Amino acid sequence: MTGFPSQFENAVGLVLQHEGGFVQHPSDPGGATNFGITHATLARARGHPVSVDDVRNLTREGAIAIYRRLYWDAVRAEELPPGLDLAVFDLAVHSGPLRAVRLLQAVLGVEADGIVGPVTLAAARRADVPQAIGRLTSMRLRFLRRLATWPVFGRGWQRRVLGTEREALRLASPSSTD
């Protein structure tokens, strides 16, 4: 144990800066959320139906465990280059792991099958990471702008996506000491 945060700890900390506490916004198709974990995601993580009160009572530690298993591990972020790991993870949290992987694969020029396997990982390691982060950000914003809820949430989403891009580019920089 070095005392330094892991890649995941850094990334989930940044995600949680964007994902607040309990919210049940009438325009949010995800319904009740807590720490960004939706009602449906909590039910999937627990393997049984949950109530709005279950969402409300979700702890930060519980949310982090869900982020690890259903998002970070699902997109194999630990195996992606620094910076790209954060960009893909935040996209997975915000728009789903399958969409995150398919957009990553499109950016990398490999078959967009939604599975992070040896071909995707090899392409990620060969990629110009800052360029890949920029392209992923552009594709992500194009997708979000097409959503019916963009007029309600778009300003915050754009701030989040561009903030994630800035931090991802910092992490991808050869001078980054993280």
Automatic annotation (TrEMBL):
CDD domains: N-acetylmuramidase_GH108
UniProt xrefs under InterPro entries: Lysozyme-like_dom_sf, Peptidoglycan-bd_3, TtsA-like_GH18_dom
Lineage top rank: taxon: Bacteria
Signal peptide as annotated in the record: none
TtsA-like Glycoside hydrolase family domain ranges (all copies): 14-96
Domain Peptidoglycan binding: 99-160
Pfam families to which the protein is assigned, alphabetical: Glyco_hydro_108, PG_binding_3
This protein's name: Uncharacterized protein
Organism expressing this protein natively: Microvirga ossetica
